[in-house]
Amino acid sequence: MPWLWAAAILVTGIGAAWALFLSPADWQQGETVRIMHVHVPMAWLAMGGYTGLGILSIMSLIWRHPLADLTARELSPVGAAVTALCLATGSLWGKPMWGTWWVWDARLTSVLVLFFLWLGHAALVRAFDDMERGARAGAILALVGLVNVPIVKFSVDWWNTLHQPASVTRIDAPGMHVDLLYPLLVNALGFSLLFGAVVLARTRSAVMERRVRALQTARARRAEAA
Fold first, then answer.
1. Among candidates 82, 80, 81, 107, which has minimal Cα distance to 94?
2. What is the Cα gyration radius of the chain?
3. Measured in whole angstroms, how far is the alpha carbon of residue 43 from the centre of its chain?
């Protein structure tokens, strides 16, 4: 954990300084392009995190792994937070670029659905007194919602949307100059490390909480037996 937190803070700090002070403004977007150094990593984490949630749900349903249940339980609030940041920064960018905070096109609507899926999973796993029942219900919801991830990714290719097409993950060549691309990738790495550190810290706390509850239950039973 200390090494992960240190790496996350270091890389994020370097990426933030690079994006804010060293990276040039875009010839079309001007200084507004700096919002992309947060928006794009948040979008990647929203989709990648939900894919991870789907993998944890498969582990939960097939192998009944308790750590998968705990990790999924702690992952969903963090995933909801990064998706909310993705939507918020996208709106901040959209107002000067598109002239509006929001449009109901395929990309924005599918990301909003993804946000509600994160929130739904976070609420559902905590809606049952029996944690195992909540974990099973949340895993089913996560797997059903997994179909939305490719919709988010390919929505700009499948439909005519206001949102710009992929400019970083193109197979032939990225549609960004390296002066903008490199700090974006550093920020993506830094935010990914932060995301992992937060989820790991939350999962570790959940494991310790479960151990404490188990000890308290055992002590209560011994006291009743005595």
1. 107
2. 20
3. 7
To the question of pTM greater than 0.85 for the whole model, the response is yes
Alpha-carbon distance values, 181 to 9, 47, 161, 223 (Å): 20, 20, 23, 63
- 20 neighbors 34 (Cβ within 8 angstroms): yes
Q: Which helix (H) or strand (E) holds 122?
A: helix 106-124
d(C-alpha 105, C-alpha 156), whole Å: 9
Q: Where are the domains of the chain?
A: 2-225
Predicted confidence (pLDDT) at residue 175 exceeds the cutoff of 70: no
What is the distance, to the nearest Å, from the Cα of residue 33 to the centroid of all Cα atoms in its chain? 21
Mapping DSSP to helix (H, G, I), strand (E, B) and coil, where does residue 26 land?
Answer: strand
The CATH fold of domain 2-225: Four Helix Bundle (Hemerythrin (Met), subunit A) (1.20.120)
Query: Which tokens belong to 94?
Result: 């959209």
| Contact between residue 15 and residue 180 where contact means Cβ atoms under 8 Å apart | no
Residue 35: the pLDDT is 93
Q: How many beta carbons lie within 10 A of that of residue 203, not counting itself? A: 17
- Distance, CA of 36 to CA of 75 (rounded, Å): 24
User: Distance (Å, rounded) from C-alpha 148 to C-alpha 151?
Assistant: 5
